[in-house]
Design a protein that fits this description.
By secondary structure, this protein is an alpha+beta fold. The protein is built from three helices and three strands. It has one domain: K homology (KH) domain (GMP Synthetase, Chain A, domain 3).
């Protein structure tokens, strides 16, 4: 899942070298934290959060195939 979020984020931003994705297991879920440069934050979130919602939907669909619960946090 971490690699999926990283590939999507790097394709969206102007500074792909500043994309940092961490994966932390918690109880029965996995928390994926995405950090990007401040200038790229708007590109990752999108108007009214549409791109962020789309990223979460794609990750959720991939996680459902593996019967895992994944939470994507954008920082």
């Amino acid at each position: 899942m971490r690699e999926l979020v990283e590939v999507i984020a790097k394709a969206l931003v102007d500074n792909p070298e500043e994309v940092v994705v961490t994966e932390t297991p918690k109880d029965d879920e996995i928390v994926i934290e995405l950090k990007v440069a401040a200038a790229d934050m708007g590109k990752v979130i999108g108007k009214q959060g549409r791109i962020a919602k789309a990223i979460r939907s794609v990750v959720k669909a991939a996680a459902s195939k593996e019967d895992k619960k994944v939470i994507v946090e954008i920082r």
